[in-house]
Amino acid sequence: MTEELFRQDAYLTTCDATVLAVNDDGSIILDRTIFYITGGGQPGDSGYLEKQDGSHIDIVTTRKDRKTGALLHLAQDGQDGKVNAGDKVTCHINWETRYKYMRHHTALHLLSVVVPFAVTGGQIGAVESRLDFNIPDPDFDKEGLTEKLMALINQDHAVTMRWITDEEMDAQPELVKTMAVQPPRGSGKVRLVAIGDVDLQPCGGTHVKQTSEIGSVAVTKIENKGKQNRRIRIRFVD
Ligand SMILES: [Zn+2]
Prior knowledge:
The protein is α+β, with helices and mostly antiparallel strands and 238 residues long. Helix content is 18%, strand content 37%.
């Protein structure tokens, strides 16, 4: 099984690893990784593996194998066969993109604070991100939400993590805001992400350490997606 270093420290941009296996489709399994695995609305990381001879294998994305649960690093087409089990590699993620995901991801947590309704879906991007909410009767506009969101960001709250057991999680169902994404189970513990004293929810994604790192964002669209469903989009403001 692969050690998920990005869960403990989202700021790691490189790490040394050993290739455990290369599948028939060319996907690569490592003993440890800093590549975020696609999930919870956050895209998997891209980057490259550097071999000891200095050559690179480009990684286009990373995802979990549905059947085996293995974490798969997907190599660029045509680069199959460049690594073998036992090879030592250095992982490099595309940090510029990942950091944008971290900033957007943390901003979406805060969006769920200023829009206190059940989240039914979401997607994180490097340019734009969105959350879908179940809102019977919306009484807000883009400008008002942007103002509230920026107020929380500018309060520069610390973002911290702690782990609780599955049983403790079951005893606090109100922590789960995202109906579409249940917290990852199976390991016996669930990771909670706290933003100051304004937000606390289970999440396996990558976040910034302080909300000021998010920078300026704006709510750019509130779309009507069905009877009670509202899709709220945010973007960075440069
Ligand atoms: Zn999160």
